[in-house]
Amino acid sequence: MLPFYLLFIFLFMSSFCDSIPVKLEQKKILFCMVFFALALFAGLRYNFPDYKSYSDFFYLLNNKSVISSEGDLAIVANDKGYIYINKFIGLFSDNSILLFLVMAFLSVGINLSCYKKYTPYFFTAILFYYVHTYIGRELMQIRAGLACALCLYSIRYIVSKKIYHFLFVILLAATIHLAAITFLISYFLCNLKIGVKTLRYLILISLVIGVCMPLGQFLKSLPYMEGLDRIQNYSGWEGFNQTLGVFSNPTVLKQLIVSAVCLKYYDRLDKKVYAFRMLVTIYVFSLCWLVIWNDFGIIAARIATFFSIGEVLLIASFYQLLSSKKTYAVIIGLASFIFLTLNLVKGDLNYQLVFFS
């Protein structure tokens, strides 16, 4: 676990650049260092959860002699964009290391460029990204990682109301991970201009549904239906159909706290934070979805993760609420340390460099 904490220390120290005066050139250099550190850390890891599945998929696509049937390709998913990425990389190398490096540089690069554009407190956003979503996406679910990064990139087109640009980016993301197609809803949600009071009621109603009659069991009970087969297949897999819970789920509790702060200081933050209203709207949708589908784990988490992409930006925006930015930097550092430790212990994660595999 030591490599995780060493990288954490570097990112934590970097986050103080958001609370103390630092020259622009120095920030640019540090930003580049952070980018390469995160991209290489993800791209050069070995033997992580899902690593073998992605590696085998790459070899199956680029070495036809070991493909026995189309069923072999289902070990990851037959999303065309991801298949093309694998085949394109296979033109240059027959080693899956290059695949993980390319995916890491793309995902980390898009995410960090978005943080830099969307918030002046981007080093804080990067720190929280590292201890939470980076571990789950860039180190494990690399398809979801790149698809989520593209969804985050598309936020600018919701702001500028460029629907065709938005559609192009989301459809591209969906070719990498089909679940990204659900993010199309965000364009229309954000243009509804839902008020604070309505958002609060939606959270309350979702909590009641999630506790009393979550919807996952209903989906599991449906007979086989064409078009829902990919979802319904998960209901028979113990690792995917588990119940996440509501108030026993740390992710729900975290999102409730972040949502509560955002809604309490909504008017104040909306005047100062880029795309704040839109980020809050889709974040609340993520929370509501996670709660009402909590008894069907993979459906709840997989969709909710696309709509929670702005979480790190919202947390970074809380700098606007405190007079002492250094104090908030320390608070975020402590919270990030706790999240990192919980994620590492929960997943029993140990970092192994591919060169020593």
Automatic annotation (TrEMBL):
Sorted UniProt keywords: Membrane, Transmembrane, Transmembrane helix
Pfam families: EpsG (PF14897)
InterPro entries per UniProt: EpsG-like
Transmembrane segments: 29-48, 88-112, 118-135, 142-159, 165-189, 201-219, 274-292, 299-322, 328-345
Domain of life: Bacteria
Protein name: EpsG family protein
Species for this entry: Bacteroides thetaiotaomicron dnLKV9
Phylogenetic classification of the source organism: Bacteria, Pseudomonadati, Bacteroidota, Bacteroidia, Bacteroidales
